[in-house]
Structures are given as structure tokens and as C-alpha cells.
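Appendix B. One record, verbatim.
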Amino acid sequence: MNPGTPIPREERLIVALDVPSAAEARALVEQLGDAARFYKIGLELFSAEGYFELARWLVARGNKVFADLKLYDIPETVRRAVANLRSCGASFLTVHGHRSVMEAAAKGKGAMKILAVTVLTSFDERDLEEMGATKSIEELVLARARGAAQAGCDGVIASGREAAKLKADFGARLLVVTPGIRPVDQNASDDQKRTVDVAQAFANGADYIVVGRPIRQAGDPRAAAQAIQRTIQGVFPK
């Protein structure tokens, strides 16, 4: 998808398959049915058996795949890993927002889109202080986004709290993919710190949202996904 190409609204919801096994991931996908079209498969599944088979299964059934692996290694290793990951049919792949890593990933991406992680949504200002960062969260997110654009990446991972500033600065040049989504009526406490709800994420400029626990842990995951899709339809009416 080129910058400016309309995003099918049914694909703006990316469901995070953060489950222990490929079998559980397939079961959830089948349970959700047409309530979701785009799926994130990340580190938990990568450490289990069948990651690439799961990715190819998803693509074969008409779904899109987001390989959320947050690659971070020496540039040549990253470039080769990205080239290998192209073969599974993933549409998106994440790498950490270090300049040489982003540049290497962009060289090997082919048609796959590279998303640079700016600041994890589980981090707050205190976490940055512990890391010795001298910038605020927003300053660091914007700095890494500038690096991502210059390195040839296609988008960034950022919280909904920074999405408006990212869109103001980069427009259609960078996709903004936003995790840390929590529905308005959910009060559960977890490790996500910089959260927004579905409507606010898109109002702030997010192109896609990533939703995991609010769907997986719902009494009826399919109904939860459908409710999110209805909210998206309200934001992006045809």
C-alpha cells in the first residue's frame, strides 16, 4: 500500500495473537472469523513451534500478517533476517528505532513494510529516566520517527498520545500503528501505561490499532472484535 492509498477499514484493527502456541492462535482466528482480517504474531509465538507455518496459514486464508519481532542486531544480521521474513508473506515487520538497524531493514524489506518502534507503550517517563534518556517521551518518539523516515522505513509504532504530533509532522509519509488500546469501559490494570481508547486513537491520527487482551480475554472475543469494528466504521464511514 502506497502512502495516500485508502486503508480498508476492516483492516485497521490488528488483533494481537499473543498466545502460547500456534494451535491456540489458529483457534482464536477461527473463532473471530470475519470480525478480524489483520493479525499480529509476535515474540511469544516466535519462541514456540510453527511460527512460519502459522504466518503462511493466515496469508493463505486471506488474512494479513504483522510480524512483531522488534529486530535489533548488527545491521547485516538484521538485513538477512528481514529477507528471510519476507518469505512468510508478512505485510508488516517491526524493528527497533536505531538508525543502522532501520537502514538495514529497509534495504531488505521488498514489498513488506518496516515499522520502527519508537517508545514502547509500556514505558513512561520514569522508565526513560532509568534508561538515562535526556528527552521526554514525545521528543524521543518524534526523533525516532524522523530517523525512521530518513532510513526508508514505512511507519512507526507509537502510542495514541503521540499520534497527532506524528501525523502533523509526517502526514502520509509514515504509517502510525498504535498499540496500548483499551476500551472506554475497561478498567483492568495491566502493564500498558500510555493507553487510549479506539475512537481516540483514530481521532489522534492512528492508521491502525493493535488490540490484544481486550479481545482475547473477553467473554465473547468475536463480539468484542465486532464492537471495535463498529467503532471504526463510525470513524471511517463509507
